[in-house]
């Protein structure tokens, strides 16, 4: 998971906390993006991601021409919290379905910028393996897959995938507490996946992702 994702998650919690304290009442509009950027001292993209997360959780709703409105009930549980409590087999089954669809779309819809970002995260993943740095491996792996999700061109799939990252990271922590063996063993598959997406080779991309999923890498 990259720093931008972590920051937007933190900002969404801060905004939700302000709503719960009564700073923004049900039916009120929260401040526009420029004001939120100053208030929480973050950039526009972080604010947009934070507001999207709140909308997905049912805390606010975005109305065209009106702005972002606080909902009457603000006790909706964020989706990432629900996922943490869910049965992992069920979560992983949905993740597998998401990954298959995301890869197919990424083959068709990726941009040069997406490819460059994927390649950077893949290089970081390899460097972390060589340094035996488990945390860096996890961060680079999540960032690599998140970029593939972004390359799908489907914002809903991308947002869903972001919500799954916390559960996937927790899975990595429980599955391999002492080392990075699974990251090292699966790196060639991630390289195959990257090259297939870059080359717009749908069959090869699906096969590489399926092997990754079958081995829970």
Would you kindly provide a written description of the structure presented here, covering whatever features stand out?
By secondary structure, the chain is mainly alpha-helical. It folds into two domains: 3-75, Arc Repressor Mutant, subunit A, CATH 1.10.10.10; 80-214, GntR ligand-binding domain-like (Four Helix Bundle (Hemerythrin (Met), subunit A), Up-down Bundle), CATH 1.20.120.530. Helix content is 72%, strand content 4%. It has ten helices and two strands. The protein has a two-stranded antiparallel ribbon with strand order 1-2. Helix 1 (3-20) packs across helix 3 and helix 5 packs antiparallel against helix 10 (202-214). It is elongated and about 50 Å long. The two termini are 15 Å apart. One of its GO terms (molecular function) is DNA binding. It holds the Pfam family FCD. InterPro entries: GntR_C (IPR011711), TF_FadR/GntR_C (IPR008920), Tscrpt_reg_HTH_GntR (IPR000524), WH-like_DNA-bd_sf (IPR036388), WH_DNA-bd_sf (IPR036390).
Ranges where pLDDT stays below 50 over 5 or more residues in a row are 1-5
Under CATH at level 1, the class of the largest domain stands as: Mainly Alpha
Q: What is the assigned CATH homologous superfamily of the largest domain?
A: GntR ligand-binding domain-like
Q: Specify the oligomeric state.
A: single chain
Number of domains: 2
**End-to-end distance:** 15 Å
Domain HTH gntR-type: 5-73
Organism: Mucilaginibacter terrae
Keywords: DNA-binding, Transcription, Transcription regulation
GO molecular function: DNA binding
């Amino acid at each position: 998971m990259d720093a931008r994702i972590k920051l937007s998650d933190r900002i969404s919690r801060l905004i939700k906390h302000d709503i719960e304290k009564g700073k923004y009442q049900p039916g009120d509009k929260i401040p526009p993006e420029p004001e939120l950027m100053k208030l929480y001292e973050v950039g526009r993209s972080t604010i947009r991601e934070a507001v999207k997360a709140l909308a997905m959780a049912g805390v606010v709703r975005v109305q065209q021409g009106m702005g972002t409105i606080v909902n009457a009930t603000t006790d909706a549980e964020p989706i990432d919290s629900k996922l943490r409590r869910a049965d992992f087999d069920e979560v992983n089954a949905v993740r597998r379905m998401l990954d298959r669809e995301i890869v197919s779309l990424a083959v068709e819809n990726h941009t040069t910028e997406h490819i460059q970002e994927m390649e950077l995260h893949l290089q970081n993943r390899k460097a972390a393996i060589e340094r035996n740095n488990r945390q860096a491996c996890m961060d680079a792996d999540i960032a690599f897959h998140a970029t593939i999700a972004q390359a799908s061109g489907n914002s809903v799939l991308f947002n869903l995938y972001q919500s799954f990252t916390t559960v996937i990271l927790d899975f990595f922590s429980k599955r391999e507490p002492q080392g990075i063996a699974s990251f090292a063993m699966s790196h060639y598959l991630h390289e195959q996946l990257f090259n297939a997406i870059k080359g717009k080779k749908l069959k090869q991309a699906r096969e590489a992702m399926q092997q990754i999923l079958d081995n829970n890498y």
